[in-house]
Design a protein that fits this description.
By secondary structure, the chain is α/β, with parallel strands linked by helices. It is built from four helices and 20 strands. It has a single domain, classed as UDP N-Acetylglucosamine Acyltransferase, domain 1 (3 Solenoid), CATH 2.160.10.10. The radius of gyration is 16 Å and the shape is globular. The model has no long low-confidence stretch (mean pLDDT 97).
């Protein structure tokens, strides 16, 4: 494994246009293209593609196309999870989705970060921080979850919210940035 990919996997600053990382991204792009053009009439093929694309997929998972990922193999999805149309999961760092999670359309899970220093950005350095979504979480349509966020089990995040900080279990959170409005 090359130095840049090792740095990426370790959560350190790395250069994204490294040939080995680019090959992983191309693999994911080809698999997502196949997935996104597969037919609902052939669920076996669709599920096989999903298993090849993602790191782990639990039983009875449904992810409606289109789906976009960076690499795919850094995403795990727990059993019984439903992801509606238009999900974007940028998995430069691991994305862990628990069991029985519900995601509305156009949810974005975004692990990448970029340096604040303009020279480092110009030199194409970036990094990422994992996202963890607990069991039985509901993310409404258009929710954006930022790098390093953990959302506790049973939490509901209202449509259009932008989650920039961890949310505890058993709460409702809404807004930009997402704020807890009540306990469940």
């Amino acid at each position: 494994m090359g130095e840049q990919k090792e740095r990426m996997l370790a959560g350190e600053l790395y250069i994204a246009d490294d040939p080995e990382i680019a090959a992983d991204a191309l693999r994911a792009a080809l698999l997502t293209e196949r997935y996104n053009t597969s037919t609902a009439a052939d669920p076996g093929t669709r599920r096989a593609i999903l298993h090849e694309l993602l790191g782990a997929v639990g039983a009875d998972v449904e992810i409606r196309p289109p789906l976009q990922v960076d690499y795919g193999y850094r995403i795990t999805v727990g059993a019984g999870t439903f992801v509606n149309f238009g999900a974007v999961m940028l998995d430069v760092a691991p994305v862990t989705i628990g069991a029985d999670v519900q995601m509305g359309p156009n949810v974005q899970l975004l692990t990448p970060t970029h340096p604040l220093d303009p020279e480092l950005r110009r030199a194409k350095w970036e990094s990422a921080v994992p996202i963890i979504i607990g069991d039985n979480v509901w993310l409404g349509g258009g929710v954006i979850v930022g790098p390093g966020v953990t959302i506790g089990e049973n939490t509901v995040v209202g449509a259009g919210a932008v989650v920039t900080r961890d949310l505890p279990s058993n709460v409702v959170a809404v807004g930009v940035p997402a704020r807890v409005t009540r306990r469940l």
